[in-house]
């Protein structure tokens, strides 16, 4: 068993770690509120623009089939945008995302598609490290700006890059792997199709946005509006995926740091109990020595 001095050092070390984890928990809580507000504020716009794209596509009917983004690419490869964290200490956030992605890739292998047919765009250093160490093809690792500083302009540039890659014909489809934020304690890894667009991928139930009217007079015409609206729709989808991933990351980090602080508290209490018992034993031994010495003198 450790001596009094060693126990005192360990108690102090655990206390220092507890201060760090508590500070990180407070920082994560502050950033979580900020990103959560942004993610929630962007959802109504995303739902409305998705509903408008769906209504316009129904108005155009068979003409939508002529749109390149509504048809699979001619190639056999797939492109994936993977959104992870830049830093660790966020619990199982990245682990759950990687597990979901690996299950999806195994499903593709079962369909006769090898992992070499999948290329990746990556946000977050953890994702880049994971893919590189396992031999996956990372076509682009996006580091500027950092994850915490992403904005709509960044999402728009990323969306355009994905569309440009799809329109080359090299890829038959594009997917986004991110973590959807549902609550402070629930964040779900998701793999969603990005391109080609389909009525199902718009994610809007029939009848949504019923205020719009197929008989409405549009200026310019529906086809022109549709062509201008689709890029905005794709950009907002990337933006929402980034915001939800960031919100989920900080929710997971806050939860992990809270657990670490609680564990440090428990460890500190246990060490103090051992320290007090050890000190009492030493005091008792010293008293016994004194009493024994006095008895010997008598």
UniProtKB/TrEMBL annotation:
Superkingdom of origin: Bacteria
Membrane topology category: Peripheral membrane protein
Keyword terms of this UniProt record: ATP synthesis, Cell membrane, CF(1), Hydrogen ion transport, Ion transport, Membrane, Transport
One Pfam assignment: ATP-synt
Gene3D superfamilies hit by this protein: 3.40.1380.10, ATP synthase, gamma subunit, helix hairpin domain
GO cellular component: plasma membrane; proton-transporting ATP synthase complex
Keyword RNA-binding: no
Keyword Nucleotidyltransferase included in the entry's annotation: no
Subcellular compartments: Cell membrane; Membrane
Predominant location: membrane
A molecular-function term among this protein's GO annotations: ATP binding
GO biological process, any: proton motive force-driven plasma membrane ATP synthesis
Primary role: Produces ATP from ADP in the presence of a proton gradient across the membrane. The gamma chain is believed to be important in regulating ATPase activity and the flow of protons through the CF(0) complex.
Self-association and partners: F-type ATPases have 2 components, CF(1) - the catalytic core - and CF(0) - the membrane proton channel. CF(1) has five subunits: alpha(3), beta(3), gamma(1), delta(1), epsilon(1). CF(0) has three main subunits: a, b and c.
UniProt similarity note: Belongs to the ATPase gamma chain family.
UniProt cross-references to NCBIfam families, sorted A to Z: ATPsyn_F1gamma
Name of the protein: ATP synthase gamma chain
Species annotation: Saltatorellus ferox
